[in-house]
Amino acid sequence: MEFFPATGKRVAGVDEAGRGPLAGPVIAAAVILDETRPIDGLADSKILTARKREELFVLIKERALCWALGRAEVEEIDRLNILRASLLAMQRAVAALSIHPELVLVDGNQAPEVDYPVQTIVRGDATVAVISAASILAKVARDAEMHELDVRFPGYGFAQHKGYPTSAHLDALEKQGVSAIHRRSFKPVLRLMGTSSITIYN
To answer: Average pLDDT in the 38-48 region?
Structure first.
């Protein structure tokens, strides 16, 4: 993995978490690492254990030059579509950085509109440490929020599946109806919205 891209510039890594779930916000992170305080173990957040992600989450916040989170809410996801909402969350994360980057590296092949030069890197979360750090921040922050939403909206299992369309989640949707944090533009939810017996919980 490339820890610091050989650009000679102050680089921010950007990634998001939560494009695939049927419920909850999409959360993005932007981070500028400190070359003098490297962090061992950075990797794509999806291949790390929850415990390792949480350990790295603390280290990244402690050692990075700066970091920030951005988000797009369920209503924005439904209005804009998930891709545009994800890019909006990324844009907000970069804008919230306390230090201006000279280059922004974004995981994937779509770039948000930001005030700095930007480069997309497919599978960047597995190959570039600064993007890996952003993926970890976004994933841990979103998972924590889904645990909180599990308390507010019991019975759906958000703490376990984080809103992804698992069989347990789909079964809960069938039984309990669509909650206020479900994405109504996503097909499994939209299909249930057409059932007259469905209740919308606020």
So the answer is: 92
